[in-house]
């Protein structure tokens, strides 16, 4: 669905607008100033703090009362800057709070013109000419002033306004709560699935735990049956693990005792010695060589 352009100045009111439409707000260029400024090499966040002070001498209002929107150029030490009064932006946000309108973007009106290096695109708007020569550079002036501003370095071309030229520029951060009904409706399927997962996950976990406990109990019963078959003298099983260890330890000792005879012979007889007779009497072993 194509977005509808709302041309905005301080007298604009958002009334009788359809809620099922999407809108792009185009702020009147007379309400802003644009600047191309060089800054020392620094990060974008530092430049955002420094630029208001660098522009302070050319601005009519106190920088504390202004909003600054920055765009880094191809040359990293230069920025294009749009400056607008905070009162204007706050008034715009306040007007939008109760409308429930779906605002896709908020731009300055000259941003609806194309942008191309070495060219100035313009369109006649009543008595003025709207022009653009950079992402954040443009404005509204008379034809005479426009001709003086751009001489041989720029080719001036006429072009119609179009929302596609605004690209992804958005000067307005619309409060999420102002459009909460529309946003919830848009994401209703995802939200329902998420809520179902939140409800069903503990239930599934309980079922998994129940099934696992059931399997463990079954295996424990099987293990006890096998243990009683191997050791029928055991009448009662209290702790199967400990009782198995005890029985294995007893079997190990018994096995060692069974091997004592061979150990005795090996210790008493030299290697390659022939044995004539072994006599075991009253716990005493006699070896005749």
Automatic annotation (TrEMBL):
It comes from the Bacteria. Residues 29-150 form the GspL cytoplasmic actin-ATPase-like domain. InterPro entries: ATPase_NBD, GspL_cyto_dom, T2SS_protein-GspL. NCBIfam families: typeII_sec_gspL. This is GspL cytoplasmic actin-ATPase-like domain-containing protein. It comes from Bathymodiolus thermophilus thioautotrophic gill symbiont.
């Amino acid at each position: 669905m194509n977005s509808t352009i709302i041309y905005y100045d301080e007298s604009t009111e958002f009334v009788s607008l359809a809620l099922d439409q999407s809108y792009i707000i185009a702020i009147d260029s007379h309400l802003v100033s644009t600047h191309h400024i060089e800054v020392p090499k620094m990060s974008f966040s530092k430049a955002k703090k420094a630029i208001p002070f660098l522009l302070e001498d050319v601005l009519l209002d106190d920088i504390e009362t202004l909003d600054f929107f920055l765009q880094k150029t191809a040359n990293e030490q230069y920025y294009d800057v749009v400056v607008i009064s905070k009162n204007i932006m706050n008034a715009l946000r306040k007007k939008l709070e109760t409308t429930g309108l779906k605002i896709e973007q908020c731009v300055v009106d000259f941003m609806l013109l194309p942008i191309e290096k070495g060219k100035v695109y313009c369109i006649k708007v009543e008595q003025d000419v709207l022009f653009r020569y950079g992402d954040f550079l443009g404005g509204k002036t008379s034809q005479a002033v426009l001709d003086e501003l751009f001489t041989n370095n720029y080719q001036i071309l006429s072009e119609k306004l179009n929302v596609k030229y605004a690209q992804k520029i958005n000067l307005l951060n619309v409060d999420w709560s102002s459009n909460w009904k529309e946003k919830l409706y848009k994401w209703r399927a995802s939200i329902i699935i998420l809520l179902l997962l939140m409800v069903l996950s503990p239930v599934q976990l309980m079922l998994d735990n129940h099934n696992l406990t059931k399997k463990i109990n079954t295996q424990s019963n099987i293990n006890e049956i096998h243990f009683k078959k191997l050791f029928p003298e055991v009448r009662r099983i209290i702790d199967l693990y400990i009782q198995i260890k005890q029985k294995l330890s007893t079997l190990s000792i018994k096995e060692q005792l069974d091997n004592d005879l061979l150990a005795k012979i090996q210790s008493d007889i030299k290697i390659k010695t022939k044995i004539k007779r072994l006599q075991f009497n009253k716990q005493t072993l006699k070896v005749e060589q």
